[in-house]
Amino acid sequence: MIDKGTFGTLKALYHTFGCKLNFAETSTVARTFADAGITRVSGGEKPDIIVINTCSVTELADKKCRQTIRSFHRRYPKADILVTGCYAQLKPEEVSSLEGVAIVAGNDRKGDLAAFLHNWLESKQQQNHVRPASDMRTFTPSCSRGDRTRYFLKVQDGCDCWCTYCTIPAARGRSRSGTVDQMVAQARQVADSGGKEIVITGVNIGDFGKRVEKADNDGNRTLVRGSETFLDLIRELDKVEGIERYRISSIEPDLLTDEIIEFCAGSRRFMPHFHIPLQCGSDKVLRLMHRHYDTALFRHKIERIKELIPHSFIGVDLIAGARGETDEEFIRSREFINSLPVTRLHIFPYSERPGTKALDIPHTVTPEEKHRRVNEMLRISEKKMQEFASQFIGTVRPVLLEHGKPGSPMSGFTDNYLKVSVEAPARLDNTIVGVRLLELIPTEIGDCHVRGELAPLPSSFII
Asked: Which of 192, 193, 320, 334 has the greatest number of C-beta atoms within 10 Å?
């Protein structure tokens, strides 16, 4: 434990890439540093240290991380740069070679960054604290808010799936999680601080409870099989007074059980909002990807959600142009997506990742064809999103308002995840209010915002 004041008057700047999980973890690092006396600054002040939490989901993500590290070093040449996250975990030597980098820390060492910084300040010797994913034994709970109204609660880390296109198991290690009691305690802290909404996040949250960290009498950490499930978790979170909204972040279709869907349908706190990765609508390609489901199971999950919660928002992840996705398989995937009552698609062009099994699949898709397929799926997404949003024009829905820039309307999300702009007094920040949805606002392809006005909230929405 680093004591308050250890670092004197040091100032830190934080930069995060990637997923909501990374943002939650950066927030925890920042709190740890603040407890040790390090002041957080924005880009306007010169920092003494810069913490960069990286992503490595694609080769482009790696490139952006490298560019950002170099850019910060040019801008603040005297600052010490601490790099962590998936890019640091997978390519520590590459990160260490970049100018200005003082510390490289693996994904499971983020909680030790303050100690590493203390050692660096004493020795001024570059440090590399990255161990193999197979040796990861710890789970560090994280909960972030940042400038948002919503909080992001990390409940799980790691993945056991080893999909052929993915490096996450190598970057994050085996699936592991906290306990229900730990997560409920975090939710209560959010409620005590005035938080209204929590997004449950992790690498593979449906695996919650599969393994938990345990220390022996000598303090050695190991992972043991757990006895709790994700359904156990959400049942207990639902009981926390003060939290008015929960959203389930991305959850695998084979782990989204009918019991979870049924529980959410009957809950007043779990929002009608799901995000479910599909990756491809072709069974042949799903097998090549080593996904743990087929299109029949995926369709069943979507139809069950719509049967029980017809007004729910359903986001879907897709990879365009994966190895093995021939023209014929892409057409199958496109037709499958078109047939589903989903709301919005998150489309990613397939990216080659060194060391993945996908590289053994012979059929490749040209960059130009990937780009064409991405755009074709984006048009489908835009159509589905507009159709979904249009059916709620004229209705009143609950919106958790967030402050905007001075002179601009407030904004927020409805229960079913429609982004709304509304003229409202600043005192309504972090308050759930009724908003009548008036009209769709044109925006970038694949997205959709709504203009609204304050209106009395129907009693059916009041907890």
From this structure: 320
